[in-house]
Amino acid sequence: MPLFWLRVAVGFYGLGLLYALLALVRRHEIISRIIMPVIGVGFVLHFVSLTEHYVNLGHLTPDSIHTSESLLAFLIMVFFTVVYVRYRTTAPGIFVFPLVFLLTFSAAVGLKPPHFSSPMLRSGWIFVHIGLIFTGYAALFFSFAASLLYLLQEHTLKSKHPGGLMSRLPALEVIDQMGYRSLLLGFPFMTFGIVAGSVIAQSEFGAHYFLDPKIVLSLLMYAVYMLLVYTRWNSGWRGRKAAYLSTFAFLAAVLAWAANYVSGVHRFIAP
Amino acid sequence: MNRFLLIGVNHKTAPVEVRERLAIPESRLPEATKRLAGHPGIEEAMIVSTCNRVELVARAQNGTADLRSFIREYFQVEPCTVEQHLYEYRASDAVRHLFRVAASLDSMVVGEPQILGQVKEAYAVARGVGAVNSHLDALVTRAFAVAKRVRSETAIGTSAVSVASVAVELAQKIFGSLEGRTVYLIGAGKMSELAARHLLAHGAGAIFVANRTYDKALEMAERFHGQAVHFDKLYDIADKADIVITSTGAPHTIFRREHAEHFLARRKNRPMFFIDIAVPRDVDPAMNELDGIFVYDIDDLQQVASAHVSDRKKEAARAEDIINSEVERFAARLQTNNVVPTIVSLQEHLENIRQAEVERLRGRFGEITPEQEAAIEVLTRAIINKILHTPITTLKSAARDQGEGPLVDLVRRIFNLQDKAKAAGGGKD
């Protein structure tokens, strides 16, 4: 049943994907009017699916890569909803919906997932680690999306042909605020998530885990994240420079996520 | 009518670089108008010079005059640089163009109200130096009336998106809410002050005012409840401003790339919005390439504004109809004006005959009662009016159709009218 709800949700998110693809070209009255209700229904179904899955599972730690994908997509959607409520804009959806669609689609197609069978996952601490890091990921992705929106809006303003796109995107400073706030909000999550992960790894594997590709990439991502926060806070980096940095951070995050497949300590698949 | 001439450039025919060359600052306008009026072949003249247009309106002494040569001489420009941007109208086309300008149909932002005031000022300047006489006077006052009529009979002015509101809209797209933003107003000018006023009305907080004349800055600062800045400290506080509006008469740019880089460093890269209303420009357009600096000059504002204009196309079409009918009316009136002296002297001529005959009659009849006298008056007047009715209407309609022409001469010769008409009227238009 959870998988069924998820698949329906993916259908709704698919319309979000359509919105994202069309939004850059021109305004579609009908789509922009129904996008929030549609995404809202998808979001609720997604929530139902996750809850049901966890109830069946009996513990909060994801049991497979697909559950992780679904959980991350859900957290990103929580972010999106909060931003929507606060700023009344669906503009981040241009970047958020495709990613959410991709994650949930991958989770929903239901190919036999690599199952996390490691007994380590029974430990409650792992959940704390995952929860924190995922929230950090969602925040990072959001500030990445915001920096792309910033570039778009800056470009339309500078081109002096402010057409429809300009009116559809929020004001430049609002986009900047959105990105900076999610960056700041995500920072403690990311920090404590990595600390929690380190503590668990230290106690389970000892010091040699530091050379694991997943850990190296995660630390790289964390370093870029810190750099992002620092340059923004200290010299107000935004626009192009910030977009380069956050693209870099995002790529590092994607690699760190993908590194699950090559990591020794982070595969959670019992030998 | 045929002797009205108009030559000019506007925001549609010439880029800001060309308009900068031809713009005449307020202080030099009287002298320029006087020189134009004194140009060979020109009888009356007026110059409208705003940041969007330069219009030379003139009435030639006879036939035509070379306004292009005036432009070449006065502005010391190579013909090739401006010729291609000039438009030139004569007779009813010149009248129509002036009507359209005054009615704000030719404006960057169609329907914006400022242009009428600017034409009025140009008219006042021209009157001040004695460059305007009866004919141009009639034309310009008619243009004001037409502008008023367009404003009251169409909706073109009601939804006018002025440059000021375009500036506000852009500022909101950069800063979101304008709450607490700081405006820096450099130089004086109607449009820049209007923009500042709009920004303040939309929540902008503090305002700095700089002017080459510190007293003027003080006076303006007081009006805006802002803070006056000495012109030599112009750059010192600029980084505190989010929105900078410039409209100085400076011949060179006052804000350049290096300034902007400095401001950005001091502002921690928070964006800045430069609204450059000055012609010639005060802000180097290259600054727009810097991250976080947005520079809009008067032409750029127009582009944004023109996006709004399409909504008002219908109203504009109605306004054009009004203009066309007004041009016709004006032409008709001018032409009938020419036969009026002839008609008046014709009436006077017959009235003299009538009075002389009545006197003679009175001498012959001796005492007559007041009733009888009144009856005679009525009778004789009626005869004259009846006789004159057809000739007068014929004269008027002939004037409307083909100008003064041979008919007037014929009437003069038949009745042996003296050449009073020529002396009073001043010939044909």
Structural notes for this entry:
The complex is a heterodimer of chains A (271) and B (429). Chain A is mainly α. Chain A folds into two domains: 1-115; 117-271, no CATH class. Chain A is built from nine helices and no strands. Chain A has helices at residues 2-23, 29-57, 65-87, 93-108, 124-159, 164-168, 172-205, 213-235, 239-258. Chain A is globular and about 60 Å long. Chain A starts with a helix and ends in a 13-residue tail after the last helix. Chain B is of the alpha/beta class. Chain B folds into three domains: 4-160, Beta Polymerase, domain 2 (2-Layer Sandwich), CATH 3.30.460.30; 163-308, NAD(P)-binding Rossmann-like Domain (Rossmann fold); 329-425, no CATH class. Helix content of chain B is 55%, strand content 12%. Chain B is built from 16 helices and ten strands. In chain B, the strands form two sheets. Chain B has a six-stranded parallel beta sheet with strand order 7-6-5-8-9-10. Chain B has a four-stranded antiparallel beta sheet with strand order 2-3-1-4, with helices on both faces. In chain B, strand 2 and strand 3 (53-60) form a beta hairpin. Chain B is elongated. Residues 420-429 of chain B have low confidence and may be disordered. The chains are: A mainly alpha (271), B alpha/beta (429). The interface between A and B is medium-sized, with 24 and 20 residues.
The CATH architecture of the largest domain in chain B comes to 2-Layer Sandwich
Question: Helix proportion of residues of chain B, in percent?
Answer: 55-70%
Largest interface: A-B, 24 and 20 residues
Count of individual helical segments of chain A: 9
Quaternary form: heterodimer
Strand order of the largest sheet of chain B: 7-6-5-8-9-10
Can you tell me the residue ranges of chain B where pLDDT is under 50 for at least 5 consecutive residues?
420-429
Main sheet makeup of chain B: 6 strands, parallel
Q: Using the alpha-carbon principal axes, give the shape of chain B.
A: elongated
